[in-house]
Amino acid sequence: MRDRLEALREEAASSIQAAESLEQLKELRIKYLGKKGELTSILRGMKDVAPEERPVIGGLANEIRSAMEKQLDEKESDLQEAALKARLKEETIDVTLPGKQAPLGTIHPIQAVIEQIEDIFIGMGFEVAEGPEVESDYYNFEALNLPKEHPARDMQDSFYITPEILLRTHTSPVQVRTMEAKEGQVPVKIICPGKVYRRDDDDATHSHQFTQVEGLVVDRGISMSELNGILLSFAEQFFGMELETRLRPSYFPFTEPSVEMDISCVMCGGKGCRVCKQTGWIEILGAGMVHPRVLEHGGYNAERYTGFAFGMGPERMAMLKYGIDDIRHFYTNDLRFLRQFKTL
């Protein structure tokens, strides 16, 4: 048995040394030291060994087992280190190589225009207010002097969710909500940017979903001349040039008197062109003095306070500023179009 154990020692040492992979080493560990391995198989013959030799054979067997385990562990460590070096070599990164330029997105042109508008009005002391896009009929219509069955409701074909809940058709409800939150305190000086929804057929100048920026000022002694001055200042800053403006009488249920604001054509400087239809003027927004009923719905005494409001469409402002002829370009996600606005 001693000879068999010594032969097994030599055979195992040679096989372990020749192993080239961790998988081979695992198989050798099972072959020599497993429950059905060769060392165990030899030791099963201990019953045939003379009693006085059994301690000697047992000690030798333990010595060989320990030697095998040590050799297996050392070989496993060597193979793991070699595998790691090979992997590191394979995955080596040449830090001197130029990096790959990752494509970067940019702000959508409509959002960029809204931010430009916000910056201008914030510079004039306005605050930005927001409100829900799913709105109640009261805030969207009634509080804005549009009671049930009012014919002016037909001007805004709406998406109703229930008889009393709808997708807002303008951002004017934010004005009423803000006045309520102020609880009669002045001044109120806000702009309200956001998405609005109307049941329009999509074409080159209309969309069922678009954006608005509306403004509201309420205080003592507010007049139409102040409205005209603020809008003129805004137009000149937004378009980056000196412009002529004019206010034309119009009608909006929530303002009285109501006007539309025209500016001298930014394309031809007022000389007349295709864009302004040879008139030299372009309409950019609606405005007016806040109707007394709207002030009262907001919690303000209309005999003590006055105010003005205005509203514009960022899509239209962007189309005029950048010479875009179709509103659908903003919503079709054409990268050829959007990439033109990376510098905004």
TrEMBL record:
Residues folding into a coiled coil are 65-92
> Domain Aminoacyl-transfer RNA synthetases class-II family profile: where?
111-340
User: So where does Mg(2+) get bound?
Assistant: 256
UniProt entry tagged with the keyword Transcription regulation: no
Query: What's the Enzyme Commission number for this chain?
Result: 6.1.1.20
- Domain of life according to the entry: Bacteria
User: Where would you find this protein in the cell?
Assistant: Cytoplasm
Principal subcellular localization = cytoplasm
One Gene Ontology term of the molecular function aspect: transferase activity
A GO cellular component entry from the record: cytoplasm
Keywords annotated in UniProt? Aminoacyl-tRNA synthetase, ATP-binding, Coiled coil, Cytoplasm, Ligase, Magnesium, Metal-binding, Nucleotide-binding, Protein biosynthesis
Q: What cofactor does this one take?
A: Mg(2+)
GO biological process, any: phenylalanyl-tRNA aminoacylation
Q: How does it assemble?
A: Tetramer of two alpha and two beta subunits.
Give the matching HAMAP family. Phe_tRNA_synth_alpha1 (MF_00281)
Q: Which family does it belong to?
A: Belongs to the class-II aminoacyl-tRNA synthetase family. Phe-tRNA synthetase alpha subunit type 1 subfamily.
Q: By what name is this protein known?
A: Phenylalanine--tRNA ligase alpha subunit
Organism name = Marinithermofilum abyssi
